[in-house]
Automatic annotation (TrEMBL):
Residue ranges occupied by any HTH lysR-type domain in the UniProt entry: 1-57
Keywords: DNA-binding, Transcription, Transcription regulation
Keyword Metal-binding among record annotations: no
Protein name (record): CysB family transcriptional regulator
Domain of life: Bacteria
Length: 318
């Protein structure tokens, strides 16, 4: 059994049994892949793929189990290589961050500036996408770190709280409510809203119901949201840490304690090897998440054990 054979069966499965596409992705020949897959099946005495002539039609039940283990083996081999590189060159390598818009736009820039000055030989890639896309990238190994606006429930990833955040209301300076210190729900009844796509209330049957009916449009991108507010489309509802006084001088931000906020989270793939510089980045993002603590959280064997450890963690507000 060879690692190359394991890689072939995993990639064949990833390419939906398309040998031509698999060969192209691996820069090899289709007959070569077919031959190696056959040799592996003969050695194991099982059939991994069912066939119709020269075409693969489906994966057998035992084949699915073998491919799953093969993927885990290849992942461990990749981890060993990374560990060895880190031992020889601890301050160089690659780092891919999967981040939502708010994290990539408002949190990462200042953090990465300091990080890249400290680790100039680490090549950093930022993948921006939805929470679902970012979570999948980390889960599949395409990214090393997830930065999300809120922790995912029942996530396969290890989710650690980064900071607490609140939402506020954004208005043009000439808006009738612009001079109010803070705004109540009742004051918004007559005005349209431009929201960030999140619910205005976390509880059923609250006074936010009337506000929900006033939503003119949703814009998950806070820069777009503020543009819509400038166009007079409505009062903006967004995370307060997306407010930039120097850039947003033509707008005003009002507090609204009744609006639900959230807890930003850092996500890691369970069992993944963490480079030394990744611990450094995590602590820059969330000073309370020291290397010692992150190692403890990673070592937690059950969800209950992790919750007990996190119960003593103080999460700052941004």
């Amino acid at each position: 059994m060879k690692l190359q054979q394991l890689r072939y069966i995993v990639e064949v499965a990833n390419h939906r049994l398309n040998l031509s596409a698999t060969a192209e992705s691996l820069f090899t020949s289709q007959p070569g892949i077919s031959k190696q897959v056959r040799m592996l099946e003969d050695e194991l005495g099982i059939q991994i793929f069912e066939r119709s002539g020269k075409h693969l039609t489906q994966i057998t039940p035992i084949g699915r189990d073998v491919i799953k283990v093969a993927a885990e083996v290849l992942d461990k081999v990749a981890t060993i290589k990374v560990m060895a590189r880190q031992h020889v060159h601890p301050e160089q390598g690659t780092l891919t961050i999967a981040a939502t818009h708010l994290q990539a736009r408002y949190i990462l820039p200042a953090i990465l500036k300091g990080f890249m000055a400290r680790f100039p030989k680490v090549a950093v890639t930022v993948m921006q996408g939805s929470a679902t896309q970012c979570r999948a990238a980390v889960h599949d190994g395409a990214a090393d770190l997830l930065l999300a606006d809120e922790p995912e429930e029942r996530s396969e990833l290890l989710m650690l709280p980064s900071f607490q955040w609140q939402r506020g209301l954004v208005l043009p300076k000439d808006h009738p409510l612009a001079k109010a210190t803070s705004l109540t729900q009742a004051e918004l009844v007559e005005f349209a809203l431009v929201t960030d796509g999140r619910a205005l209330s976390t509880a059923q049957g609250t006074d936010c119901a009337h506000a929900e009916s006033r939503i003119a449009c949703c814009a998950s991108d806070s820069d777009v949201l503020k543009t819509y507010v400038r166009q007079g489309m409505g009062i903006g509802v967004m995370a307060t840490f997306a407010w930039e006084p120097q850039r947003d001088g033509d707008l005003v931000l009002k507090t609204a304690p009744w609006l639900p906020g959230g807890v930003a989270a850092i996500g890691l793939r369970r069992g993944a090897f963490l480079c030394g510089y990744l611990y450094d980045l995590i602590e820059r993002l969330a000073p309370q998440l020291t290397r010692e603590r992150v190692e403890q959280y990673c070592a937690a064997r059950t969800g209950e054990e992790l919750e007990a450890l996190l119960a003593n963690l103080t999460v700052p507000q941004r």
